[in-house]
Write a structure and sequence with these properties.
mainly beta, binds zinc ion, 7-stranded mixed beta sheet, Metal Binding Protein, Guanine Nucleotide Exchange Factor, Chain A, 1 helix
């Protein structure tokens, strides 16, 4: 997790967009959903849940919005130049957003706490056996505090 008051910097591949996030994180998950696979071209994406107010952005990301599996709209924010993924927002309670952990300058500063949407995981993807795994979303209690 990102501790209360902990500050992490990140940005896209080309550096046009930079951000600073401030803890605490709400959750850190590996998401295997189909949309994350398509949007990232990888088996899963690692996301850090925070409130929108905990993210300070420099630069203007491009966005793409579609309808998520839950029926709400999901907007992915990325660099329009290098296509580096930054964060995802949507119709989620408490205005929380999910920052792509791979866009952190030091991705090892965080550690995944769960695996979600395991039902969509590619047969070859592998996860830390110690992590709790959920077929779809983690129960909401763990997403808000
Ligand atoms: Zn960029
Ligand atoms: Zn996902």
């Amino acid at each position: 997790m990102v501790a209360e008051g902990q500050v992490l910097d990140g940005g896209c591949l080309c550096g046009a967009i930079r951000y600073r996030l401030t803890g605490p994180s709400l959750f850190v998950s590996q998401c295997c959903c189909k949309d994350c696979q398509k949007a990232t071209g990888t088996g899963h994406t690692t996301i850090v849940g925070i409130h929108r107010s905990q993210l300070a952005l420099e630069g203007e990301p491009a966005t793409y919005t579609n309808t998520g599996e839950s029926g709400g709209s999901v907007t992915r924010h990325f660099c329009g130049t290098c296509a580096g993924r930054l964060y995802t927002s949507g119709d989620m309670p408490g205005e929380f957003i999910m920052v792509q952990a791979g866009s952190l300058d030091d991705p090892s500063a965080i550690a995944p706490e769960s695996v979600i949407y395991l039902k969509d995981a590619a047969s070859w993807d592998r996860f830390d056996p110690a992590l709790p795994k959920y077929e779809v979303m983690q129960p909401r209690d763990n997403h808000t505090r």
